[in-house]
Design brief:
The protein is α/β, with parallel strands linked by helices. The chain is built from 7 helices and 29 strands. The strands form 8 sheets. It has a 6-stranded mixed beta sheet, with no helix packed on it. A 6-stranded mixed beta sheet has the order 17-14-18-22-21-19, sandwiched between helices. A 5-stranded mixed barrel has the order 23-26-25-27-29. It starts with a strand and ends in a 6-residue tail after the last strand.
């Protein structure tokens, strides 16, 4: 049986980013760039004014020196003629700096010369060279890599792409993830629940988790505990970019998932992991496509997805950081566990005076879905320890986005 760390490393080493596809920049939010975006121009593309004021020659601007205002350049205007000595140009923010000028004097730093013509102004405070000028290439230089491969696109990246004149960007494709729940005891939500039957929560929960991570879920429905039904649905699922099955991977006399996967050519890389919950999960590949076989218990399915499948799907979408934040938190109460497996305990989390405090979120039996509902994080309790005392610091994987 592999350790949890060995199993996750094996999964991540056996998945790779999807191929690239072009998307409109407004539709690219959250996606990962699959090309180095190189600036085709300088930003700014020309020297321009950062203030409403006057473009001047610093050498003309001794304190209270009179200047003749000989022109006006609005934003979007054109600066053609060179400004002659003793002259200034009225200029607006974003307008091109005219030739010969080497500073911008803000409106509040000039005043009309008393008794002089309307176009004669004096500078109250002598400017310095380059003052309030945004120089060409000062932000981005032509040929510079501004968004390297692997960058997750957020609003500032969209702004940069638009500033460079881009309407599209190449990003890694979202994988289509087939989801198959198995078991004769399952019926779909909305149907009548006969005695001895259970609602199939795994399909919709895993589909929601796949969608939350940014991939595309494809629900295959329920496969009966029957080889022919399993074979048909697994074969359909292998047309997707990844396949997730839930249940049927233990040692029961009707657990046929692993042997059916082997029958269709899936190479199983491991079965059973030193983690709780999730010991019975398996992982394999066929034609480069990953296959995750998760336990059927809803809590076990969701925690193994979180710790094993989610990082792999993020890597397939080109993400560089594929693990949730891991933080140190102080226990408010004792925790006990069995030795031999990493235990993922569902816990509550609170930040107090800059420190995280952590405590039990409820019953830790894997049949209690409500405990996972109330959890802010998963405490990662090492395999070789059995007890953790109140006041001790432990590591937790944050689940709640409010605490990230």
């Amino acid at each position: 049986m592999l350790s949890f760390e060995e199993a996750r490393e094996m999964i991540l080493s056996n998945v790779a980013p999807m191929e690239a596809e072009p998307v409109e920049i407004l539709k690219s939010l959250g996606r990962v760039i699959a090309e180095d975006v190189i600036a085709p121009l300088n930003l700014p593309s020309f020297d321009n004014s950062a203030m409403d004021g006057y473009a001047v020659r610093v050498s003309d601007c001794n304190q209270f020196a009179p200047l003749t205002v000989s022109g006006y350049i609005p934003a979007g205007g054109t600066a053609v003629a060179e400004v002659l000595p003793g002259n200034a140009i009225r200029i607006m923010t974003g307008a091109p700096v005219p030739p010969g000028c080497d500073a911008i004097v803000p409106l509040e730093d000039v005043e009309e010369a008393e008794g002089a013509r309307e176009d004669i102004w004096i500078v109250k405070t002598a400017p310095r060279v380059g003052q309030h000028i945004r120089f060409a290439g000062e932000d981005v230089k032509r040929g510079e890599i501004v968004l390297p491969v692997g960058t997750q696109i957020r609003v500032p990246a969209v702004s940069m792409l638009a500033s460079l004149g881009r309407t599209q960007v190449r990003v890694y494709r979202k994988p289509v993830v087939a989801i198959l729940a198995t078991g004769d005891e399952l019926v779909e939500p909305g149907q009548a629940l006969a005695k001895g039957k259970l609602y199939n929560s795994n399909s919709v929960a895993l589909a929601a988790a796949v969608r939350e991570v940014g991939a595309i879920p494809m629900i295959l429905g329920i496969a009966c505990d029957d080889r022919d039904d399993l074979l048909e649905k697994i074969t359909a699922g292998l047309q997707a970019d990844a396949l997730i099955t839930a249940a049927g991977v233990s040692v029961g006399d009707r657990d046929f998932v692993r042997e059916t996967l082997a029958e269709v050519g899936v190479n199983e890389l491991f079965w059973k992991v030193g983690m709780k919950p999730g010991k019975s999960m398996a992982f394999g590949k066929r034609s480069g496509k990953p296959v995750f076989s998760l336990p059927g218990n809803p809590v076990s399915a969701m925690i193994t997805f979180e710790e094993m499948a989610r990082p792999a799907l993020l890597k397939m979408m080109g993400h560089q950081k594929v693990l949730r934040p891991l933080v140190t938190a102080t226990l408010r109460e004792d925790i006990r566990k069995k030795s031999g497996r990493v235990f993922f305990s569902r816990v509550r989390l609170e930040r107090v005076n800059g420190r995280f405090l952590v405590w039990n979120a409820g019953n830790q039996e894997t049949g209690f879905v409500q405990t996972l509902l109330h959890a802010d994080a998963l405490a990662v309790l090492p395999a070789d320890r059995v007890s953790f005392e109140a006041g001790e610091e432990i590591n937790v994987h944050i689940l709640s986005s409010l605490l990230e």
